[in-house]
C-alpha cells in the first residue's frame, strides 16, 4: 500500500501516511498512536496525529484544487465513481480481512460494511439527475427564472471506528461527485481499511488535491471545524463529540451534520411471527458486538410476548464468541480494552440497580485469544427507564428487556427517550403497524425489520438526540448538504426600442 510506510527494521511497525495534494506524506509529528488488533492486542501499525502545518497543507491543497475540479464536467466525475465502485468490488475481500483485523467484526460483517458503502458509491454515479436544477419560462413578460446546483468548496468528514469502510464511503464520494474537494479524517483506531479505499479512489482517477487525508484527535477535528476554507463538515460518532463538532463548526459559519448516539428499541407484539422476531432481535442486538449506532439495545415485549424471553435467551446462547476472522464467529471483540471496561461497568450497574440478569457475558473466555477484548451476549429483563443500562448507550452486546401491557405504553416509553435514530415493530397486523409508524417520534422505522437503515436512494434520517443538522448523509438530502442553490432571473430585450419605462415597484412587468 502506498498509504502505509512499511517497517524498515525488525521491531518496527508500519506507519500510516497522510494524503496531501495527491502525495503520500510521512508525517513530521512526534505524536503517534498504535493500531491494535482487538482480538489479539497485536500492534498492526501506527497512525500519526498530524501537525497543524500538515492539516493546513491538506486544506490548502483542497482549496486550490477546487477551482479546476468544480469545472470538471459532471460526466467525467461520474466516470470516476463508476471506476471506483468497480475497484472496490474487486478488492472487497482483501479490504474486509484488514477491516476485521483492526476493528474486530466478523469477516461477513466486514464485507457487509463495505457493501453498504459501495451502494452509496453506486448512487453517486447517478449524480447527473440528482444535481439537476429547475427552469420556468415566462415568469413575467420576457423574464425567465432558473436554478443551478453548485458545489460549496472544501468539505470535511470525520468518521468513527465502528464502520471504517461504510461511513467514509457515505462521505467523500458524494461530496466529490457534486464538485467539491474533500479532507477526510478517519478514526485513529482503525484507519487501515479506510486508507485502502482512499488508495482505490486515487487509482480511479480522483485528481491531486481533490481528496486529502489527515489523521489525529481533537486538535485536528477543531482545526477542520474552524479553518476559513472549510465550508461543510460531516460527522458520525459519539453524542459528545458530535455536539462539539456541530456547535464549533456552526460558530465558524460552516454547514454541519452530526450523526450521533442512539438507544434503539424494538417493540414485539404478541401476534408477531415468533421465530422471525426472535431471530431478528438476536441478530440486531449482538451483531458487530453491539457496536452500531443502529444496534438494537432495548426490546419491549407487549402483553403475552413476555413469555418469549426464555426462548430468546436460549437462541442467544447459541452465538459463538471468537476472533472475527475465525469461521462461524457471531460476536467478535469490542474495539479496545477501554471499551470493554465501559461495557463491563454498565453490566455491573444493571445488576446493582436490580435488573434481572438472564445471560452474563462478562466471564467469556476465547481459547487462543485470551488477551482479546471479548464480551459475550448479555440479556437483562425487569429493566427500568431510570437505570444506567437503559439511559446510556452501551455500545456493546447487551440487550435490555422491558415488558408492557399495550402498544400505546410502548410508544409513549420510546417517545420519552431523548434519542431518535431507529426503532422496530414486530407484528402481523397492518393497522397496528400504521398506528405505530404514525405516532412514533423516531427518524427511521422498521416494520418487521430490526435495523431500518435505508438504501442510498433514500436518506439516513435519524432524529432528535441522535442527529444535529437538518440534512442527513447520503440520498437526496446529502446532495443538498454538499451543494448550494443559485437562483437566476433573466430578461433579454429583443432590440433597444423594447426597453419600456422606468419601474420603481418590486414587481416584474
TrEMBL record:
Pfam families: Aldedh (PF00171). InterPro entries: Ald_DH/histidinol_DH, Ald_DH_C, Ald_DH_CS_CYS, Ald_DH_N, Aldehyde_DH_dom, MeMal-semiAld_DH. CDD domains: ALDH_F6_MMSDH. It is an enzyme of class 1 (oxidoreductase). The keyword Oxidoreductase applies. One of its GO terms (biological process) is L-valine catabolic process. Keywords: NAD, Oxidoreductase. Residues 24-488 form the Aldehyde dehydrogenase domain. Transmembrane segments: none annotated. SUPFAM superfamilies: ALDH-like (SSF53720). Its EC number is 1.2.1.27. GO terms for molecular function: methylmalonate-semialdehyde dehydrogenase (acylating, NAD) activity. PANTHER family: MALONATE-SEMIALDEHYDE DEHYDROGENASE, METHYLMALONATE-SEMIALDEHYDE DEHYDROGENASE [ACYLATING], MITOCHONDRIAL. Belongs to the aldehyde dehydrogenase family. This is methylmalonate-semialdehyde dehydrogenase (CoA acylating). It comes from Acinetobacter rudis CIP 110305.
Amino acid at each position: 500500500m502506498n498509504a502505509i510506510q512499511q517497517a524498515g527494521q525488525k521491531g518496527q511497525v508500519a506507519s500510516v501516511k497522510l494524503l496531501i495534494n495527491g502525495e503520500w506524506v510521512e508525517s513530521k509529528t512526534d505524536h503517534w498512536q498504535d493500531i491494535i488488533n482487538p482480538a489479539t492486542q497485536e500492534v498492526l501499525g501506527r497512525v500519526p496525529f498530524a501537525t497543524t502545518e500538515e492539516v493546513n497543507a491538506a486544506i490548502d491543497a483542497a482549496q486550490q484544487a477546487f477551482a479546476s475540479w468544480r469545472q470538471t464536467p459532471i460526466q467525467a466525475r461520474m466516470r470516476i465513481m463508476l471506476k471506483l465502485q468497480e475497484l472496490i468490488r474487486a478488492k472487497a475481500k482483501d479490504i474486509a480481512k484488514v477491516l476485521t483485523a483492526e476493528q474486530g467484526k466478523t469477516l461477513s460483517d466486514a464485507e457487509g460494511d463495505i457493501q453498504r458503502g459501495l451502494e452509496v458509491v453506486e448512487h453517486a454515479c447517478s449524480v447527473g439527475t440528482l444535481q439537476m436544477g429547475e427552469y420556468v419560462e415566462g415568469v413575467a413578460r420576457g423574464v425567465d427564472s432558473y436554478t443551478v446546483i453548485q458545489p460549496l468548496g472544501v468539505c470535511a468528514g470525520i468518521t468513527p471506528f465502528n464502520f471504517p469502510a461504510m461511513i467514509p464511503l457515505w462521505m467523500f464520494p458524494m461530496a466529490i461527485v457534486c464538485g467539491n474537494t474533500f479532507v477526510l479524517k478517519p478514526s485513529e483506531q482503525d484507519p487501515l481499511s479506510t486508507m485502502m479505499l482512499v488508495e482505490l479512489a486515487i487509482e480511479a482517477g480522483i485528481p491531486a488535491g481533490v481528496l486529502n487525508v489527515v489523521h489525529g484527535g481533537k486538535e485536528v477535528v477543531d482545526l477542520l471545524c474552524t479553518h476559513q476554507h472549510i465550508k461543510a463538515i460531516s460527522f458520525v460518532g459519539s453524542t459528545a463529540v458530535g455536539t462539539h463538532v456541530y456547535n464549533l463548526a456552526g460558530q465558524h459559519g460552516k454547514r454541519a451534520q452530526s450523526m450521533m448516539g442512539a438507544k434503539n428499541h424494538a417493540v414485539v407484539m404478541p401476534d408477531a411471527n415468533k421465530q422471525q422476531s426472535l431471530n431478528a432481535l438476536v441478530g440486531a442486538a449482538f451483531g458487530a458486538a453491539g457496536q452500531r449506532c443502529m444496534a438494537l439495545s432495548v426490546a419491549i415485549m407487549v402483553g403475552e410476548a413476555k413469555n418469549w424471553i426464555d426462548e430468546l435467551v436460549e437462541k442467544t446462547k447459541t452465538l459463538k464468541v471468537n476472533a472475527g476472522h475465525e469461521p462461524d464467529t457471531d460476536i467478535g471483540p469490542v474495539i479496545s480494552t477501554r471499551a470493554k471496561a465501559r461495557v463491563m461497568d454498565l453490566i455491573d450497574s444493571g445488576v446493582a440497580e436490580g435488573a434481572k440478569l438472564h445471560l452474563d457475558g462478562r466471564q467469556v473466555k476465547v481459547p487462543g485469544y485470551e488477551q482479546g477484548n471479548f464480551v459475550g451476549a448479555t440479556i437483562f429483563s425487569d429493566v427500568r427507564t431510570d437505570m444506567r443500562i437503559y439511559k446510556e448507550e452501551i455500545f456493546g452486546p447487551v440487550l435490555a428487556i422491558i415488558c408492557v401491557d399495550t402498544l400505546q405504553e410502548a410508544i409513549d416509553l420510546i417517545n420519552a427517550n431523548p434519542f431518535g435514530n431507529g426503532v422496530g415493530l414486530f407484528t402481523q397486523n397492518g393497522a397496528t403497524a400504521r398506528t405505530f409508524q404514525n405516532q412514533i417520534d423516531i427518524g427511521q422505522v422498521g416494520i418487521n425489520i430490526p435495523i431500518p437503515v435505508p438504501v442510498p436512494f433514500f436518506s439516513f434520517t435519524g432524529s432528535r438526540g441522535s442527529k444535529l443538522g437538518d440534512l442527513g448523509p447520503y440520498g437526496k438530502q446529502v446532495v443538498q448538504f454538499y451543494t448550494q442553490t443559485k437562483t437566476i432571473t433573466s430578461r433579454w430585450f429583443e432590440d433597444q426600442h423594447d426597453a419600456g419605462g422606468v419601474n420603481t415597484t418590486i414587481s416584474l412587468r
